[in-house]
Amino acid sequence: MPELKQRIARQFSRAATMYDRFADIQADIAFDALSLLPGCDGTLLDIGCGTSRYAKQLLSKCSHMLGVDLAYGMLSQARDSVSNADWICADAEDLPLAAQSVNGVFSSMALQWCSSAEQAMLECARVMRPGARGTLAIMSAGSFTELHKCRQMIDGQLLGNRFFDSQHWHSAAEKAGLRTASHTRAYTSWHPDILSLLNSIRHIGASTLTQTDHRPLNRRSLLRLEHEYEQHFAKNGRLPLTYNVTFLQVIKNHE
Ligand SMILES: C[S@@+](CC[C@H](N)C(=O)[O-])C[C@H]1O[C@@H](n2cnc3c(N)ncnc32)[C@H](O)[C@@H]1O
Question: What domains can you pick out in the chain, each with its CATH number?
Fold first, then answer.
């Protein structure tokens, strides 16, 4: 596995026991995505399932559930709490599943970790049976803009990962043979200070930097970051963090 993927898997595995306690906004997004997911007969694949705390809702929409995740630690949590599903530790960009083997797909807040949207969508389309449907919620461009802008103000650097835009995901899905409808929605979490804001990312295991040109923040830059954040974005003494989420609703074309 490439070094970057190993780092991503390690961070999420380490955070797995705390994930459900800290991932409030991820829960809101997953439940919004679930409300869009059509039911299916047969196997429903959850890509990047994490701890699968919404397994009950997924199981109510299919007869068999299969969770795939890069992080073994996440899958252990999922396996401990859900007995009537199957779990595979694997990469969304290289699924160890036969072509046309699943009847539906779901994913929430995982696919943005893929290096190539095209490869992720090709793999998703390959394993879907013709006519299979799915809902994919993906963090996209416009996410964490407050952090990016403040970091640029202090030293011209970017802080945090950059994301593909929703059009990029939409056309990757269509090119892979998926009929696609998409919309984007912003979610905001609010924090009392910059440390708690940064910890909201770190505590769920999502702080792996995917670009190599990042310089880490020292204490001085952290104080400046907090100052800029307060100046430009604070409301009622609280700091916002925006998640811009693209919801793709996909149907695998009949050949
Ligand atoms: C923010 S969590 C979301 C978990 C769950 N879907 C939820 O909504 O609570 C992101 C998950 O994606 C997984 N992930 C990241 N990159 C992945 C990849 N390339 N293939 C499969 N899973 C991946 C991580 O290990 C992590 O469990």
Answer: 3-143+162-188+244-252 (3.40.50.150)
